[in-house]
Amino acid sequence: MDITEIWEELAQDGGRIVYLVLDGGGGLPHPPHDRSALEAAQTPNLDHLARAGSCGLLEPVGPGITPGSGPGHLALFGYDPLRYRIGRGLLSALGIDFPLRPGDVAARVNFASLDAEGRITDRRAGRIESELNQNLCRQIQDGLDLDFDGEVFLQTVSGHRAALVLRGAELDDAIADTDPQRTGVAPLAAKAIRTSAEPTARLVDTIVAQARRILADRDRANGLLLRGFQRYDPLPSLEQRFRLSGLCLARYPMYRGLSRLLGMELLDPPSDFASAVAGLMTHYQDGHGLYFLHVKETDAAGEDSDFDAKVAALEAADRELDSLLDIQPDVLVVTSDHTTPALMGAHSWHPVPVVLHSPYARRDAVERFDEVACAGGVLGLRPGVHLMGLALANAGRLRKFGA
Amino acid sequence: MDITEIWEELAQDGGRIVYLVLDGGGGLPHPPHDRSALEAAQTPNLDHLARAGSCGLLEPVGPGITPGSGPGHLALFGYDPLRYRIGRGLLSALGIDFPLRPGDVAARVNFASLDAEGRITDRRAGRIESELNQNLCRQIQDGLDLDFDGEVFLQTVSGHRAALVLRGAELDDAIADTDPQRTGVAPLAAKAIRTSAEPTARLVDTIVAQARRILADRDRANGLLLRGFQRYDPLPSLEQRFRLSGLCLARYPMYRGLSRLLGMELLDPPSDFASAVAGLMTHYQDGHGLYFLHVKETDAAGEDSDFDAKVAALEAADRELDSLLDIQPDVLVVTSDHTTPALMGAHSWHPVPVVLHSPYARRDAVERFDEVACAGGVLGLRPGVHLMGLALANAGRLRKFGA
Q: In chain B, which residues have their Cβ closer than 8 Å to the Cβ of A363?
């Protein structure tokens, strides 16, 4: 039996939990000093937490699995990512606050540049401005002429990214990506993975072809690439599962979308992490069970292979922890959804360090918040999905199991 | 596949295993010295074992799960507590040596005090003496006049606690507790959770109403509260599963009941832990596969938030280990069914330290038997249910898997 279902049985009201997710926070030793960004960074507040709380390592999804942001976060929130699968299309739509309805099929869209023969020259259309993106979406939306008894929504996310949402009866999301993931070739036709998805695949092809005609006089950002088709079937919320009312203080669309999917309330996007901490201070008395803060800069620096920027992002986040620690959350967890080593310039499968602080967190011998020190902590090496149970227990939110 | 089923496939005869369960033995750092009871206690024998054996941490049921005594022990014996669920009613009946038959429905009973309007004034009837309890059980048992083609047994456990056992055809245990868990209100009617339990629920209501009339001239201990209805479906025994004949040397009813449920033989209850160790010395040559010793005082002190008493209980148990070590068991395991930190005055979810000693146990760098030291041991952090496999292997009781 899935342990998360036992937490559901045992959940009760209790203290307040604060999650701080340093996106892609962990990493690998980096030349020339062979230290990870966490080891190199001056992080007095994180180190204080490590000394005062319980440390360990989380394997977000499973051994050898490099998580996308969706699965990495789902695990931290107690949703086994092998059971709850969320495509990027769905997250994109949720992240722009699109009012999805059950049964909608969403996909992630890239504006791409195609040459005269229809071959992709740039999969991101030179990373166009969001404003141009909005204009193009509007042109396409207005110009579509479909024989379809339903609705089609094409909406800007940011830069070259948009979301496509199809709404109608009997839509099927078993459609392969049309993005070939390389240049010099034409976009793929929408391919139905099962027979029942063929009408939806034909609809998608028609939309893409009409969009191409509508944008025919442009020489860049003149085609659409689609990825991650997924039907929206709402997940059971954190409230339904764990009696946790959540408040999302994240800034970026994907994390906001994920929070909405789990039934959290959302504050307006904070302008930076300092504002998010200020928001936490303002709303900590509101009686939410879970407060979700998110730092994106750590992951962005890792993706850019910029080790120094990652160190700086960690140090900047650490400075804001001063104010966060002043709140004295009942339970404070700092961890990451996955590692993004600057050495790799990409997400990776390595376990992420975690520290959990509460009056009932067993202290261990760990003195620094980094990958190697945390390996010696009392939380041990665990699946990421374990974290929510530990947080709930420390908040007094789980009744005794059996007599 | 469940790993415990692989042990079943591989089980063979072998050496003798001794389990010493320090009930609620682990804990948390405690003021003013911020040491746990295990850290504060002088336990030269446990520390010797830690140096000579393999150490680690066990998570008895799962991350964040605070185990009752039943699930905590089941895990140590290799029964996944999420799969084998035992209610307190069943354990109560087993613990008084009641000869349960398959299909019996048992419940735990509290004698409570009710006022003239039938509202509960004391859920434990002032913790009456066991002798009064026995008299009341006999009065009720003799006075019941039921239209029921079966048998009803009401038997004293101790203090205000008793066990009710219903025996007859087609009884169903899907009945909610009648104990509202608070005073100032009347006991709840027995509520069938599914339709097939309605006849059993009506039978329970009749018994409770007749008991109330029989005790009508009393102003305390004049009502019954029922909890934990459960049908007795025998578990596969340790012998059936792992070819282990067990001998229980525990003193207290619940642990004896659990041992009986797993098919162990039982010695007469020892008067204290020293007597249990003496019993082990006497019976170690009897050819049992598993000897189960149990120390209750560690848990009782934790529940009472009495840190000093917990330290004393650990030290007292450690002194008796002298004699136990003289026996040189083939495999000796010392661990706990759950933590009971004096800081919390209750069971908790924290991992318990474990030491396993045998000629084939890999020695590690751990020098003391406590929570933080054991975190660095070679057994790592594991689910509690793993322990039995390790003990069987060290006793030479598991054949090679595959060729």
A: 29, 34, 372
